[in-house]
Amino acid sequence: MNLVSLLWHLQTTDNELDDKTKRAHQVDHALANDPNLVATRAADDDAQKRLSALRAQMRDRELEAKTLDAKIKGIEERLYSGRVTNPKELDSVEKDLQMHKRQRSTLDDKLLELMDAVDHAQEFADEKAGAFKHADGTRARDLKQLARERDALAARLTELNAEREQTRTALNADALRTYDQLRKTKAGRAVAQIKRDACGACGVGTPTGLVHRAREGNEIVLCSGCGRILTA
């Protein structure tokens, strides 16, 4: 390869290195993080906590109902046993019985509401659990693919770095200095191809004499418009 061909090859190698390095970082990030899995796990946890809380309320209300039933039964046994004969005491016991029955009726309504809430919470929890299971399965498949891609990228980056060093070794210090400076200041594009007698980067026309010199490739010819190295 002549001088400019080597510089063009170096730029091609550097550009692929940049792309592969960027993708390698993305793959590493994807291997370490999965926002969708985190979100579905959190939704599943929240749904299960909500369901558990409602079930706990159900158990508390059911225990409360048993306690009321026992009280009502005790009052009824006392009321109908014949042991209470005093009219005022009978009236007090009767009022006490009615109060507890009203409480029991209100509690029944609450239990029905809770039963309905538990059913809906169970459906919602099942839905979220299914979503998490699906996301977890997808994540497992993605991890395998990402791991394969990571290994392939690592191998290719090793090849590219070796190729880059080999190409840079073949270039003289002045050419490398010009190339490196332009690569920094021209967004990674130090070398531009001439297309239809114009710079392929900025579009400024290139005189025939410069096109000929760039085509020979034995010296660095710079575009008069953007200052990039020209190759034909």
How is this structure best described in words?
With 232 residues, the protein is mainly alpha-helical. The protein has two domains: 34-169, Helix Hairpins (Orthogonal Bundle); 173-231, no CATH class. It is built from five helices and three strands, in the order ααααββαβ. It has helices spanning 3-32, 35-80, 87-169, 173-185, 208-216; strands spanning 191-195, 198-199, 229-231. A three-stranded mixed beta sheet has the order 2-1-3. Strand 1 (191-195) and strand 2 form a beta hairpin. Helix 1 (3-32) packs antiparallel against helix 3 (87-169). The longest helix has 83 residues, at 87-169. It is rod-shaped. The two termini are 14 Å apart.
Describe the structure concisely for a colleague:
The protein is mainly alpha-helical. The chain has two domains: 136 residues, Orthogonal Bundle (Helix Hairpins); 59 residues, no CATH class. The chain is built from five helices and three strands.
Write the layout of secondary structure elements.
Layout: H1 3-32, H2 35-80, H3 87-169, H4 173-185, E1 191-195, E2 198-199, H5 208-216, E3 229-231
| Average of per-residue pLDDT values | 95
Largest sheet: spatial strand order? 2-1-3
CATH topology of the largest domain: Helix Hairpins
Euclidean distance between termini CA atoms = 14 Å
Sheet with the most strands?
3 strands, mixed
Whole-number total of structural domains: 2
